[in-house]
Amino acid sequence: MADEEIEAGEGAKKNPVMTYILIGVGLVVTLAITILATMYFVGFFDPDSAERIEATVQQLEMDADEARQRAEDLAKGPDKETLDSPELTRFENTYMEIERPLVANIVNSRKVMQIKVAIMTHYDDRVVANMEKHEFAIRSEMLDVMRKIDDSRLSEPNFRTDLAEQLKLAVNSVLEKYEDFGGVEEVMFTEFVVQ
Description:
Layout: H1 2-41, H2 49-76, H3 80-84, E1 94-97, E2 102-105, E3 112-121, H4 125-133, H5 135-146, H6 159-179, E4 186-194
């Protein structure tokens, strides 16, 4: 009887060890199958996958270069040949005043700047029509430029010239975003008050 209990005790000890070994082997096999299946589905074993990835990267680079070139071309505006085309004929200067004044607080000051602006273009009435069409977006962009002005800049000798240039860039960026062509040549102040 004592011998049977000893054998039963040894058998009980072997079973848990064997169980842990079997569980460990099962986990390793499951992990290996999961890794191999993942590698298969992502194309690791596909001999053409590296070539497809390289072709995709090259296509993305070409698309980025084309987009960059287009952005540079749009920033330059139309060239001389385009201006001579019937589609974009150059006309006399055309002016348009934005009717409502633009008002913004001066940073780090109690002062307020109020301006009225007019734009000038050498192109046909489409630029003016685009200005009217996107007036709210243009006003918003111009106000964003104005709200960044602090009191120290007001005394700079070229402040108004620099501000006019920044406003022109802001207007053209909105028009280029929505109409693919800016066309505003100059921004002029028709009223300029800082109080």
